[in-house]
Each structure stands twice: as structure tokens, then as C-alpha cells.
Design goal:
The complex is a heterodimer of chains A (206) and B (99). Chain A has 206 residues and is mainly alpha-helical. Chain A is built from 8 helices and no strands. In chain A, α1 packs antiparallel against α2 and α2 runs antiparallel to α3. In chain B, α1 runs antiparallel to α2. The N and C termini of chain B lie far apart (52 Å). Classes of the chains: A mainly alpha (206), B mainly alpha (99). At the A-B interface, α1, α2, α3, α4 and α5 of A face α1, α2 and α3 of B.
């Protein structure tokens, strides 16, 4: 039973990864990554990492992917041609590099004489991978890492807001505001009536 | 299942992600491919954690997820800033690193 589940989840994960890399529309690439993350969560469950699997689904497939979808919708998921303007030879070399990396990793893996690689692992103890165990470890042995992670999240949140905000001061001629996006004909068809909510939210036009 | 299978899947996903970073030109998709590579590393960590019967690998995987979330927030902020300045969303056109 575990073998069947493993192969289903592994094929799903690899297919999601291939879709992320090869789909042209960024929106579909994000959706393929969501499939990949869900299949990976199933693999984590097979490895008895319950809390990691739950965090994967809630944080990754939930929150982070919603952020991606919003940015793709804002920037506009334009179809890019997969063939780079820099030539097909560079692309071929990249694919060759990826293949060589996989072969090298596999050879290194099989070539090691680690006895544990062929076993099913340590016997399962009750409580392994549960939220209680994770929480206890985070507040005792890994307390410093836990605190630094919270600090890192704070810095990243502040940095993202500062990077993506509207610059105050002199408005740049080339800058696009949210109101400009809303005024696009494909978003709001017809004549934009002055005095709407969009106008009220935007800075005065000159 | 022996651990070798999990590690082979992890290596395959990592190689696909690395190839994607090299091939694709849209910075959004490059960020997605970096996510793939981080997740492959997570799978290997959790697999070794299971074999050793030790929780340390799982804690490492959780910290990796935190760092990935930070990287996504900053990277998407950069892409939004690029879009606001009407720069092309294409890493081939952005090679000069001038604002």
C-alpha cells in the first residue's frame, strides 16, 4: 500500500515540477506548482512528518501561492516565447547541465555504501513528527533558530513593503499606479466616469 | 519504501528546478523554480530525519520553509517595483542592473 501511494505521489510531484518549468503562461505554472506541493505533502506524510506536511499545505500551497497568483494577476501573465533570444544553443546547454546534475546526484547516491539507504529506517516511535514534539523542540533545543526566524520574517515583510510601495515625493512619469491598471480598457470596459471609486483612490491627475 | 527512492525523486526535482532557472526568462517563473529546488532539499531532509528516527531534519525543513517565504516576499516585491517602473519583466533585458 505504501509503495502504491509513494509512486502516485512521486509521479504527481515530478509532473508538477515539469509543468512549472515548461508551461508558458506564468499563471498555469503557479497552478502546476500547487499540484507539486500537494503531492510533496503526501510524500511527507509517508515519511511520517505530519506537522511538516500540514505546514506545507497551509503555508506553501495556501498563503505563498495566493501571493504568487496576486502578483501574476497584477503584472499580467503575458505568454513569453520559450525560445530565448540569446539562441537555442544556450538553452540546449542548460538542459544538458540539468541532466548531468541529475545523473551525477544519482550516481553519488547509489555509489555511497550507507547501509541505511536501503532500509526502511528507524522503528516508528509514538509522537514522532507530531505538533507537540515539534513545538517542544522549537522552544527548547532550537529556540535561537526560532527567534531568528521570526526576526527574518519581520525584516522580509518590511523590506517587501518598502520595495513595492509607491514612491513618495516627485511622481515619476513612467510609473504605473493601481488606478492606471484599473483604467485599462480590458479591465473596465467603456468610458471611465469621473468621480468613481477608482478616481477617488488615485492621486490627482495633471 | 527504502530511502533511496525518496532521494532519487528529490534529486530529479532539484535537477528540474535548476534547469528551469537556467532556461526560463520570466523572473516570476525563476522564483517558482527556486521554490522547486528548496522543496527538493526539504524532501531529502525529511527522508533522512525518518531514517535516523531523529526530529532534527524536520526542524531544518521547517526553517527552510520560513526562509523560502521571506525570499518569495522580497522577490515578488522586486517584481512589482520593476513593473511600476515600466521595465520589461524579462531577465535578458535587465542585465545592466541600472535602475
Amino acid at each position: 500500500m505504501a509503495e502504491v501511494l509513494f509512486f502516485i505521489a512521486a509521479i504527481g510531484a515530478v509532473a508538477g515540477a515539469v509543468g512549472t518549468v515548461s508551461l508558458r503562461n506564468p499563471f498555469y505554472a503557479v497552478l502546476a506548482l500547487v499540484c507539486h506541493l500537494l503531492a510533496l505533502a503526501a510524500l511527507f506524510l509517508l515519511l511520517r512528518a505530519e506537522f511538516v506536511a500540514a505546514a506545507q499545505v497551509v503555508v506553501y500551497a495556501g498563503a505563498v501561492m495566493v501571493l504568487y497568483v496576486f502578483v501574476v494577476a497584477y503584472v499580467g501573465g503575458s505568454d513569453e516565447p520559450l525560445t530565448a533570444s540569446t539562441g537555442a544553443s544556450l538553452r540546449f546547454a542548460s538542459i544538458l547541465f540539468a541532466l548531468a546534475l541529475f545523473v551525477e546526484l544519482t550516481i553519488a547516491l547509489i555509489g555511497t555504501s550507507l547501509a541505511a539507504l536501503d532500509s526502511d529506517g528507524a522503528p516508528y516511535e509514538a509522537g514522532f513528527g507530531t505538533p507537540a514534539e515539534v513545538g517542544e523542540l522549537f522552544l527548547t533545543r532550537f529556540l535561537v533558530a526560532f527567534e531568528i526566524a521570526s526576526l527574518l520574517l519581520l525584516i522580509a515583510a518590511v523590506g517587501a513593503v518598502i520595495l513595492a510601495r509607491r514612491r513618495s515625493g516627485l511622481p515619476e512619469a513612467g510609473e504605473i499606479s493601481v488606478a492606471d491598471v484599473m483604467r485599462r480598457p480590458e479591465v473596465t470596459p467603456g468610458e471611465s466616469v469621473p468621480g468613481t471609486m477608482i478616481e477617488a483612490a488615485s492621486p490627482p491627475r495633471r | 519504501m527504502p530511502l533511496t527512492w525518496y532521494l532519487v525523486v528529490s534529486a530529479l526535482i532539484f535537477a528540474i528546478g535548476a534547469g528551469g532557472v537556467l532556461v526560463r526568462r520570466n523572473p516570476l517563473v525563476i522564483l517558482l523554480c527556486i521554490e522547486l529546488m528548496l522543496n527538493a532539499a526539504n524532501l531529502a531532509l525529511v527522508g533522512f530525519s525518518r531514517v535516523h528516527g531523529n526530529m532534527d531534519g524536520q526542524m531544518f525543513a521547517l526553517i527552510v520553509m520560513v526562509v523560502a517565504a521571506c525570499e518569495v516576499a522580497v522577490g515578488l516585491g522586486l517584481i512589482v517595483a520593476l513593473f511600476r517602473r515600466r521595465l520589461p519583466i524579462d531577465v535578458d533585458e535587465l542585465r545592466e542592473l541600472q535602475g
